[in-house]
Amino acid sequence: CRRPQKVCLCPFLPIHPLKVSTCLYIIQHPAEESRVLRTVPLLAACLPPDKCKILVGRRFSEDRHPELATVCRSPNTLILYPGAEATNLEEVTVMSANPSVMIIIDGTWSQAKDIFYKNSLFRLPKQVQLKTNISSQYVIRTQPTNTCLSTLECAAVALTIMEKNKSIQETVLRPLQALCAFQLQHGAQIHHSKEHLLKNGLYDKPMPKNKRKLRRMELLVNNVKI
């Protein structure tokens, strides 16, 4: 895990990489590389190298990323990105044979949105989303809503569904739980979601002047899916 010994996460990682048939392509925004407490390295440590490929960048073209372009054009590829056009992943795995590739965008919600909509390659695979009410265990980082999940958590849930193996989620989440426990023991504070803070009158930052951002906050308070 490359962390100091007193906060080493290696004991919480699987002894051997998980045996999975699904290959994950993590499209990582460059800003995530500099974050100390990012979750993708933990995900990569749980999987074989050939089953977790990380591509860093904002723009991905067919000329510069021919392998990714081939993957995006494959009928066995899914991209995990919620929205009106997305199908629940559980429904896709029931209706068809197991897809072999899942693309996940790693970044803040605004960064992920920018990557998804400004790269035409990512509109080629079938778009799917997770239908889950579980709350994020990544409590040392603020999420927009109570049910927004980190990249590692999304991958854990998705792999569990695609591989039809409930133990995967528990195994992949174990190092994240340990990471958060270590940080809280060393002075970190629990970060409630923006939705929780707004609903309970605890949001202490200035309200945005931008009408679009203000409208999004109103939707969070009124429990409207955004």
Automatic annotation (TrEMBL):
Keywords: S-adenosyl-L-methionine, Transferase, tRNA processing
Superkingdom as given in the UniProt entry: Eukaryota
First-tier enzyme category under EC: transferase
Record field: transmembrane: none
Catalytic function, reaction form: a uridine in tRNA + S-adenosyl-L-methionine = a 3-[(3S)-3-amino-3-carboxypropyl]uridine in tRNA + S-methyl-5'-thioadenosine + H(+)
Single GO term (MF): tRNA-uridine aminocarboxypropyltransferase activity
Domain DTW span(s) in chain numbering: 1-188
GO-annotated biological processes: tRNA processing
SMART domains attached to this UniProt entry: DTW
EC number per UniProt: 2.5.1.25
Pfam families with a match to the protein in the record: DTW (PF03942)
UniProt xrefs under PANTHER family: TRNA-URIDINE AMINOCARBOXYPROPYLTRANSFERASE 2 (PTHR21392)
Family statement drawn from the similarity comment of this UniProt entry: Belongs to the TDD superfamily. DTWD2 family.
Name listed for the protein in its UniProt record: tRNA-uridine aminocarboxypropyltransferase
Species of provenance: Charadrius vociferus
Organism phylogeny: Eukaryota, Metazoa, Chordata, Craniata, Vertebrata
